[in-house]
């Protein structure tokens, strides 16, 4: 299997030229207005990049001039974008709760936590900070890992982990859909933002890999999103091609693998589905 960047969905060399070719001239002013927002410009230029996702997770408006910052704040306030951020919050909280649970039930046992694809591993750093705050320190033997296909992204991940005091943090270069990219087994895997770029066969295969590399009793936390008309229009303008799914879809795709327990829940806006599966 040839590795590919599933999130790099843009195919046109120029979005304005594509709009002109299709006679969508009235959308050109919107395109150039959106480029004032740092969030929109990242999406337009680099599809569903890790920086696009992390801008939403940070929830700090920025852009070109006061208009750009105002527009960025409006975009960050859209229901679909707020829901997008909720998957990061869910991952942070699930990891923190898992670490607390393991501290109580299996003190002193090594715990390996993996983010895949890791991008900027904000959920790991914030989960570690939350666990320290709630339990006066991380359980002994916790090791954090990030797997990503892009070497430059892994460099960013290492630098971010160092700045945030996330240690030890081990970066692994490889394709999430390649079983050989996983150097060991893990106690917790978080995977948000990849499902949207995979078809059903690819996603089911990914869940099978996760099942294989989880230790007995290990936990997977992943997510999916439902379609919302306006946000889907903006994504399609940026050529961010997305697979939309709900709870039933995720349950069906994990059913092939013998997880001991599978739970799904929707976020408060009913857009994001959060799935946790225990081996």
What does this structure look like?
The structure is a single chain. This protein is an alpha/beta fold. The chain has 2 domains: 65 residues, no CATH class; 184 residues, Vaccinia Virus protein VP39 (Rossmann fold). It is 47% helix and 17% strand. It contains 11 helices and 7 strands. It has a 7-stranded mixed beta sheet, with helices on both faces. The two termini are 27 Å apart. The model has no long low-confidence stretch (mean pLDDT 90).
Q: List unreliable stretches of 5+ residues.
A: none
What do we call the CATH topology of the largest domain?
Answer: Rossmann fold
Shape designation: globular
H/I helix tally: 11
Number of strands: 7
CATH structural class of the largest domain = Alpha Beta
Q: Work out the radius of gyration.
A: 19 Å
Major beta-sheet overview: 7 strands, mixed
The overall pLDDT average reads 90
- State the helical fraction: 40-55%
Question: Which structural class do you get from the secondary structure elements?
Answer: alpha/beta
Order of helices and strands: HHHHHHEHEHEEHEHHEE
Major β-sheet strand ordering: 3-2-1-4-5-7-6
**The named CATH superfamily of the largest domain:** Vaccinia Virus protein VP39
Count of all domains: 2
Distance between the termini: 27 Å
Features:
11 helices; 7-stranded mixed beta sheet; globular; alpha/beta; 279 residues; 17% strand
Could you provide a short overview of the structure?
With 279 residues, the chain is α/β, with parallel strands linked by helices. The protein has helices at 15-21, 28-34, 38-46, 50-58, 65-76, 79-105, 122-135, 151-164, 200-213, 229-237, 247-254; strands at residues 111-115, 142-148, 169-173, 186-191, 214-225, 261-266, 272-278. The chain is 47% helix and 17% strand.
